[in-house]
Specification:
The protein has one domain (8-124): Beta Barrel (OB fold (Dihydrolipoamide Acetyltransferase, E2P)), CATH 2.40.50. 10% of the residues lie in helices and 53% in strands. It has two helices and seven strands, in the order ββββαββαβ.
């Protein structure tokens, strides 16, 4: 039996275009925000939408794929793990985000150009060290 589990599964929409950058060692990394919205009824029966914003970091080849194929508004399914990052300018500040390890694009080429047919493509990250976090 596993001693612990750190796994996140999300389906949502990108809030901005992915930003791909490279570490000093040449590893690609990418950051973007992902919105997930749940709808519920309040005590008066009114439908309420609640949106959560998730800050996503992606590494290596998967980061390059995100930069090439995703854009603001893209819909994806993703898997990853929660990570806490320390601000390099102020070590007392910490940020929590999600490190994406797998992704499935849920928009078809037609939808990306305003159609409605759905196709998917699943992509996994290669495993490796994340020792040179850029933030």
């Amino acid at each position: 039996m596993a001693r612990a589990l750190n796994k996140v599964l999300l389906i949502g929409y990108l809030g901005k275009d992915p930003e791909v950058k490279y570490t000093e060692k040449g590893d690609a990394y990418c950051k973007f925000s992902l919105a997930t919205t749940e709808t519920f009824r309040n005590s008066e029966g009114k439908e309420i939408d609640r949106t959560e914003w998730h800050y996503i970091t992606v590494w290596r080849k998967l980061a390059e794929i995100c930069g090439q194929y995703l854009k603001k508004g893209s819909r994806i399914y993703m898997e990853g793990r929660i990570r806490t990052y320390v601000d390099p300018k102020d070590a007392t500040k910490k940020y929590t985000g999600v490190e994406m390890t797998e992704m499935m694009m849920l928009d078809s080429k037609r939808e990306q150009n305003s159609g409605s047919q759905e196709t998917t493509g699943q992509i996994k990250e290669d495993s490796g060290s994340n020792d040179d976090l850029p933030f």
